[in-house]
Amino acid sequence: MIGTLVAAGCAGPPAPPATGTATVAATTVTVTDTAVPQILEDLADAATGTRPAAQPATTHTTHPTAAGGGTPAATPRYRLIAAPATARERLAGLAVKGRAPATGYSRREFGQRWSDDVTVEFGHNGCDTRNDILRRDLAAVSAKPGTRGCVVQSGVLDGPYTGRTISFRRGQHTSAKVHIDHVVALSDAWQKGAQQLDGDTRRNFANDPDNLLAVDGAANMAKRDGDAATWLPPNKPFRCAYAIRQIVVKDRYRLWVTQAEHDALARQLDTCPQ
Prior knowledge:
Radius of gyration: 18 Å
Shape: globular
Structural class: alpha+beta
Helix content: 25-40%
Strand content: 5-15%
Strand order of the largest sheet: 3-4-5
Number of domains: 1
Oligomer: single chain
Distance between the termini: 12 Å
């Protein structure tokens, strides 16, 4: 189903945070301590164009190709992963309570970055999750030779957060233009129930394609770990579908929302086409 989408990130702690400065590939960003681990890893991975090597699998899944061509078919930018009415029902079922402390949060709590050892879609296909999402979300994709079609060399992104068209080319100074964003940020999830999940479930959460989008790198940096109450994508037509995506993911992994977040998500559902 094609519709409009919504964006919501993950909120940081309400108290004034300490700040830190990180420099990667000539890009300097000031971020809150809560957001530092996730953002630094996204920047480093994008800047170097490196990811963990594809893990061995007994079988290798061939990804769908566009009709008449050899490049993977891109997922429509405004695809809804659930009907607005279904999302409204799931939102009503989410627990509403305050944010837990971020104590103990680490990216390592969600397993190896972009692990193929998961039971969600694309798991055990022999390719890492970052490249799975690039192949899904980019158009005109070309793969790096000798990688069994896994590693995306170039493509074109119709950026959902900004509406801008971005030419992606893998490389130390170019990969950072496109990030793979956790729609429900890992640190936000940690403070809203993920601490109680087991390691396998957290690894699935971090690699679930429904919780991942290829986006404009600068927009992802602006989002940090914000939730729907603190950040929405500038591209307003995307907000309905992004709100739906956040609700579905939080419901799937038994996470909760704050009251402000609940109200923000409900407002965005009101904007969805009927």
